[in-house]
Amino acid sequence: MAARTAAVVLGVLVLVAPAFLLSGYNLFQLTMVAAYAVAILGLAIVTGYTGQVSLGHGAFYAIGAYVTAILMTDFALPYWATLPIAGVICAGVGFAIGFPALRLTGPYLALVTFALAVAVPQMLRAKALEAWTGGVQGIVVTAPDAPAGLRLSQDQFLYLFTLAVALLLFGLARNMLRGRMWRAMVAIRDQPLAAEAAGIDVARVKTRAFAVSALFTGVAGSLGALAVQFVAPDSFSAELSIALFVGLVVGGAGSLPGAVIGAAFVQFVPNIAQQVDKSAPGVVYGMLLVAALYFMPAGVAGALRNGLRGPAPRRSAATKSTTKPQGGTIHVE
Amino acid sequence: MLTIFGVPAPLLFGQVLLGLINGAFYALLSLGLAIIFGLLGIINFAHGALFMMGAFVAWMLLNYVGIGYWWALLLAPIIVGAFGLVLERSIIRRLYGLDHLYGLLLTFGLALVIEGLFRNQYGSSGLPYQIPHALQGATNLGFMFLPNYRGWVVAAALVVCLATWIVIDKTPLGARLRAATENAPLVQAFGVNVPRMVSLTYAGGVALAAFAGVLAAPIDSVNPNMGTYFINIVFAVVVIGGMGSIIGSIVTGFGLGVVEGLTKVFWPEASGAVVFFVMVIVLLVRPAGLFGKTA
Asked: How many interface pairs between A and B have CB atoms less than 8 angstroms apart?
């Protein structure tokens, strides 16, 4: 028990230290890693554990970010109060999307949620909503100051605040994923029929998982909006959704530490790609992505767990392994 | 002047024609996606990049080798198809045992690499490609002027789509293909080389995308981003048509192109989102898509 407490204290120290060792852009990047980690954690709940593929979580991230921006500018709410509201609104939207999603599986759901990711930025641009969303211009968010009495710069405070919220949410997820809900979710992922036969209300668990997942990603969006201090439709294009998904798979779908590794990939790799080759960062990013899938199909977290086993595809949390191509069906009528 | 629902007829027909042309590209692209998905179970995110490659290969053939449009129409799909074959054999094949997602992300990464390489080499401003001599000018149809090239695009796309459908539905080769999508090990046991068929199917779907790319080259300028515009909508088309349905992709492709064109006339602001709106409605009513098999 003492060793455990020591480990926790040490861990917290390591996480808090950057606030005093780094500054400016470097610290901002870590703040974003924490925000993305929460977003990917949300995605992991629905994709990694329940096995419902979402390529549209950027939409929840965007909604969370806009809720925070609108509440802070139009309603003068304090920054911290916007987080739970954003979470609840996103949970509602996620619940609503969870219902039609029940009827869709696998690649179908992926494409539909991807369409959501494409549609949301267009809706944010719409003239009808311009009074709220600021249209193409977006909304500038005022950065929160550290509470009086704390001698912290805005950057330091933002990092620590984001970190605290992220730790809270990771703790919540960890507890939740130890209980009945988690077992039900995994059962549904691996053996939907058996799960139903065992008395699990599949529809209820799936829609709940979607709502909880959207809540996490929405709060992440709020945190991101506070860190970036600006929201605009272009920040939340379909690429964001894919980036979150890339983070999930690269980190290792269905593992909590994987979410952090994935978030680091999402935040740092595009920058590294930019430095390697200024004119075509996409090439480097794409190659790293292909290499990651090629060598570590179970994600970085999975690879660390299993040891690097080279290109032989291993069964990972989000996959059902078969030896033939998993063809869909082709038909003519 | 003749008006229909308060809209001048030439404007209306013009938009319908534009819609048909976009629809031709949707149909060719979603057809390739449907075939690839049917046999490989992979959502080919690289499809837009391979479409763009088709246009670029046509441009290169003209500017480096001096081969014109008509030969490019034949050669570019073969060249890009061969490239697809290499991709499938070397990289994509590795992920067959895994979930659909891995294939999707892998092809997404490949698309980034391909587009990035072309952007690096040719910039993103776009290169001109002339309409072939025989198809310049326009024909007066009485109610509107039809630019010859645009008419050709719609006709060529229609012919290629129908030919593909006939091959899959009516020939022994198509029968084997359909059988392999149902039960690959059994078909292999009958002596069909299934892995080779998978490779060739991927190459075939890619060749369709490249063919569409050559058709598009004289309409858009040839630029590295030309695939990205189409690909998002094409995914929606595939969902609406019913994933894996051949005839569904063709009909939905052309149909949605026209719907989009008409929306531009009557409610311009909504034209960008109308496809997604249709998708939501279709999914609520028929989750397997318009032409999909309901489980």
From this structure: 187
Nearest C-alpha neighbor of A115 from the set B244, B41, B52, B278? B278
Distance CA(B255)–CA(B248), nearest Å, equals: 10
pTM for the model stands at: 0.83
In angstroms, the Cα distances linking B45 to A58, A71, B95, B135, B234 are 18, 37, 15, 32, 11
Select from A46, A239, A329 the residue whose CB has the most chain B CBs within 10 Å, as the one to mutate to test that interface: A329
Q: How far is B142 from chain A (nearest CA, A)?
A: 37
What's the DSSP call for residue B143?
S
Q: Is B163 within 8 Å of chain A by CB?
A: no
Q: Are A85 and A201 in contact (CB under 8 A)?
A: no
Task: Give me the pLDDT at residue A301, please.
Answer: 64
Could you report the predicted ipTM of this complex, rounded to two decimals?
Answer: 0.76
Report the gap between the CA of B290 and the closest CA in chain A (Å): 11
Residue B277: HSE in the Cβ half-sphere, 13 Å Cα cutoff: 10
Residue A323 CB coordination number (10 Å): 8
Q: What is the pLDDT of residues A238-297, one digit of tens each?
A: 888 988 988 888 887 667 788 898 899 889 988 888 787 776 777 888 888 888 877 776
Exposure string for B223-248, b = 16+ CB within 10 A, e = fewer: bbebbbebbbbbbbbbbbbbbbbbbb
Task: Give the pLDDT confidence of B12-23 residue by residue, as tens digits.
Answer: 888 888 889 999
Q: Where are the domains of chain B?
A: 18-225
Contact criterion met (CB < 8 Å) for B41 and A114: no
Give yes or no for residue B70 having a pLDDT over 80. Answer: yes
At A82, is the secondary structure helix, strand, or coil?
helix
Tokens for B113?
Answer: 């690499």
Residue numbers of chain A with a pLDDT score lower than 70: 1, 253-254, 279, 297-333
Eight-state DSSP code of residue B94: G
Q: 3-state class of B147 per DSSP?
A: strand
Q: How many residues does chain B have?
A: 295
Q: Do A328 and B184 touch (CB under 8 A)?
A: no
CB contacts of B40 in chain A (<8 Å) are 325, 327
DSSP E strand stretches across A59-205: 139-140
Percent of chain B with pLDDT over 90: 33
Q: Cα dihedral sign for A15, A20, A21, A26?
A: positive
Q: How far is A112 from chain B (nearest CA, A)?
A: 7
- Among B88, B105, B170, B171, the residue to mutate for chain A (most A Cβ within 10 A): B105
Q: What is the pLDDT of residue B179?
A: 87
Q: Are the CB atoms for B211 and B74 separated by under 8 Å?
A: no
